[in-house]
Design brief:
alpha+beta, globular, about 230 residues, 11 strands, nine-stranded mixed beta sheet, single chain, DUF2971, 7 helices, DUF2971 domain-containing protein
Length: about 230
């Protein structure tokens, strides 16, 4: 379930709009299973996930001189932290469509911070936190290490276009063996406000999405992408 952590910054407005872009197979898996996939933190494409900036690492090395277990803990901790990434934006993002969907097929879930908090209450076995990602210069800026989640809430400035909010969970106490990630229970109807269909998809694909959602018993709105709007001359 969602738990508030006063150390972690989160958008104050519960109506802040967030998006998740995905392909059809992942979308259907979400609807059919009622579970959301969270990726193991060290399995992301960005190899810096869960690591420290250079100034912070120098500080940690000093601490670790008399306590080597301190550094080993942070190295192994990445295997027990799982993450679900969301994009904060009032509008659709052309870049996100390009990055996270293929072959002109895919969908975007539109939700809000408030809806996400409510949807996570269904999960009984692990605690989830929601936090904004901070984008910094890893060669110059310090990442705080007084909270174990902080290394997972900072990324390099090169990724600033992601404007990311992430759900994050530490499953160390569960003593689980995680390969690529794990699935958690979510309330689909609370999480999803609208579905947007890929702006370059064909009509048969749009009809397929509408039919599948209906047959699976869900009633959320399905929208045509704003990027598909007719040109007015």
């Amino acid at each position: 379930m969602y738990v508030n952590n006063p150390n972690i910054k989160i958008p104050e407005n519960p109506d802040t709009i967030i998006w998740k872009y995905m392909d059809m197979s992942k979308f259907l898996d979400l609807l059919i299973s009622g579970k959301m996939f969270m990726s193991r933190s060290d399995k992301f494409e960005d190899q810096y996930e869960g690591t420290f900036s250079e100034p912070t690492f120098e500080e940690i090395k000093k601490i670790s001189q008399n306590n080597p277990k301190f550094l080993n803990y942070y190295k192994s901790h990445r295997e027990n932290v799982v993450i679900s990434s969301w994009h904060t934006n009032e509008y659709e993002s052309f870049a996100m469509w390009q990055i996270f969907t293929k072959n002109n097929e895919g969908l975007a879930i539109q939700s809000t911070i408030g809806r996400l908090k409510e949807a996570l209450q269904k999960e009984r076995f692990t605690e989830q936190y929601i936090g904004e990602v901070n984008y910094i210069d890893y060669k110059k800026e310090l990442i705080p290490f007084d909270d174990a989640f902080f290394p997972f809430l900072f990324k390099r400035k090169s990724f600033q276009y992601e404007n990311e909010v992430r759900i994050i969970s530490d499953v160390t106490s569960q003593k689980l063996t995680i390969n690529d990630g794990l699935k958690i229970d979510v309330d689909i109807n609370k999480m999803i406000e609208k579905i947007y269909i890929h702006p370059k998809s064909e009509n048969w694909y749009k009809k397929l999405v509408i039919e599948l959602v209906s047959k699976l018993g869900f009633g959320f709105e399905i929208e045509k992408s704003d990027l598909e709007s007719d040109i007015l001359i």
